[in-house]
Amino acid sequence: MVSAAELWRVAGRVADPEMPMLTLGDLGILRDVEERDGRVVVTVTPTYSGCPAMDAIRADLRAALREAGYGDVEIRVSLSPPWTTDWIGPDGRRKLAESGIAPPGPAPRPAGPVPVTLGRPRPPCLRCGAQDTEEISRFGPTACTALWRCRVCHEPFEHVKEI
Amino acid sequence: MPAYDDPHGTGLADPYAEAGGEVPGGVRGVDLGAYCLMLGDDALVMSHRLQEWVTRAPELEEEVALANIALDLLGQARPLLSRAGAVDGSGRDEDTLAFGRGPGEFRNVRLAEAPNGDFAHAMARLLLFVTWRLALLGRLTGSRDPALAAVAAKGVKEMAYHREYAAGWVVRLGDGTAYSRERVIEGLAAVWPSTAELFAPSPVELRLAAAGVAADPASLRPDVETVLTGVLTAATVPVPAPPPPCLAPAGREGVHTPALTDLLIEMQSVARAHPGATW
């Protein structure tokens, strides 16, 4: 019998392919890891519906578990409950900031019809700390990030947008 | 590149956990399958039209945005098509449904299949499509079907971003220069007649709405109108009069415009040329 903690440790330390400073554990997309009749069953959830990294994540999880001695692995993708940036823990936020990516603020939790908002809270500049930043593009190089720019030091940066 | 042990491209070795769940009591599998096809086809076809902007968008940032939105819609289409094939008794997988059906078997609304025009047209169409779909998915978060509820709960969060993007551009273009204003008003006028179909319920939708699985599309109209009126007012663009009701069979019955045939010829060409191929 393998301990669940050991399986979580092996699967949780796999790096995210698109933001490799984070592990899947940091990102909060690893939902369940367990052993069932000698087979390791891992459940992951995508960050966004169209996250193109899911195939790579599946392959990396299989490879990491195989290396740790677990050859019989099933990977399930579950959409529910939907991922939220609130699942990125303090470690993940610190690693993002250290890599120059502004961590997300609290995710919005609208009740009822989703209101239209033309503008979101502004992340402060990680380089100079200025609050005066502006969004360049809400859609950045990965599904999770938006592109921002500091209006004081003029440095562009990525920001994990709240969802 | 790491070595992948799953087939790629068209092959999905590990299906979504929700796709194979049981059909809710009192609901016919063929009805649920037909409804999942409607919503899946809306997302798949709209995604393809957005993908056509890649390499053609006016700015790099807009290209990245349109590609991201297209990816999210494709990501919504996949579990919906998987669910459709799992519950309708046909056993078809998502690839067979996406790449193996002719235009008459697609159930998307015509708004999604209309050919692309200029960028203002694209923003007007996207605003209408996303506002409507966001209202629809908002209702489906409470669906008795766990797969629909899961797709909806995930979709509403990302589609709020899609709607903000389209709304931001419609405001910028409408309240911009005389030329940008003219283009967005023209784009809106081109897609506006298609909105009648968005609120016209098909018998399947009505049966499933009564069973607590679907939303009656007619009930979405007030929410959609509130959002559109707000955005168009901010854009200083006049709100067009409601279009004449949709009386003839249209997308939900598989009656499409020739534009869908053209779209499918391109979208399905690789799968038809190389049946069963993976990459």
Describe the structure.
Chain A is of the alpha/beta class and 163 residues long. Chain A is built from four helices and seven strands; from the N terminus they run H-H-E-E-H-E-H-E-E-E-E. Chain A is elongated. The termini of chain A are far apart. The model of chain A has no long low-confidence stretch (mean pLDDT 91). In chain B, 49% of the residues are buried. Chain B is globular. Helix content of chain B is 60%, strand content 0%. Chain B has a single domain, classed as Ferritin. The two termini of chain B are 14 Å apart. In chain B, helix 1 runs antiparallel to helix 2. Chain B has 279 residues and is mainly α. At the A-B interface, helix 3 and strand 3 of A face helix 2, helix 5, helix 6 and helix 10 of B.
Mean pLDDT of chain B: 92
Sheet-strand content of chain B, in percent, reads: under 5%
- CATH class division of chain B: Mainly Alpha
Our measurement of the CA-to-CA distance between the termini of chain A, rounded to an integer number of angstroms, reads 38 Å
The dominant shape of chain A is elongated
List the helices and strands and how they pair.
The complex is a heterodimer of chains A (163) and B (279).
Chain A: H1 4-12, H2 24-27, E1 30-36, E2 39-44, H3 54-67, E3 73-77, H4 90-98, E4 101-102, E5 133-137, E6 145-150, E7 156-160
Parallel strand pairs in A: 2-3, 4-7
Antiparallel strand pairs in A: 1-2, 5-6, 6-7
Chain B: H1 29-51, H2 60-87, H3 94-99, H4 110-113, H5 119-140, H6 146-174, H7 178-191, H8 195-198, H9 203-210, H10 221-234, H11 258-267, H12 269-273
Helix pairs in contact in B: 1-2, 1-9, 2-6, 5-6, 5-7, 5-10, 6-7
